[in-house]
From TrEMBL:
Domain (ABC transmembrane type-1): residue spans on this chain: 1-98
Identification of the protein by name: ABC transmembrane type-1 domain-containing protein
Species this protein is from: Auricularia subglabra (strain TFB-10046 / SS5)
Alphabetically ordered keywords of this record: ATP-binding, Membrane, Nucleotide-binding, Transmembrane, Transmembrane helix, Transport
PANTHER family per UniProt: ATP-BINDING CASSETTE SUB-FAMILY C, FI20190P1
Entry GO MF terms: ABC-type transporter activity; ATP binding
UniProt cross-references to InterPro entries, sorted A to Z: ABC1_TM_dom, ABC1_TM_sf, ABC_transporter_C-like
Pfam families membership: ABC_membrane (PF00664)
Transmembrane segments: 22-44
Gene Ontology CC annotations of this record: membrane
Length: 98
């Protein structure tokens, strides 16, 4: 869009009127907004899939561990750890990837 503004101020594209420059500039703005929205949705979906995969693996690991480990480890500690990991993935991963 900066390049288009430069062309517009210099009038270097022959045959373009102010209306056509405005339409081109507005089209670039709308295109940028649409692509940014699509990228945000894609990163949110990728973060959700990563979070779901981690939680499924962690839960399966906890459920199929030895009974002695469950007797020594408080249930609150297990729940707290799993929920903290998932919260970190849900909030931080998509934002940092973006």
């Amino acid at each position: 869009s900066t390049v288009i503004l430069g062309f517009w101020t210099q009038g270097s594209i022959s045959g373009f009127s102010n209306r056509e420059y405005m339409a081109l500039y507005a089209g670039l703005g709308v295109g940028t907004a649409i692509l940014t929205f699509i990228a945000a949705i894609a990163f949110a979906q990728a973060g959700f899939n990563a979070s779901l995969g981690l939680f499924s693996s962690a839960l399966q690991g906890v459920m199929f561990t030895n009974i002695q480990w469950h007797e020594k480890t408080p249930t609150g500690a297990i729940t707290n750890r799993l929920s903290k990991d998932i919260d970190t993935l849900d909030t931080s991963l998509p934002r940092n990837m973006m």
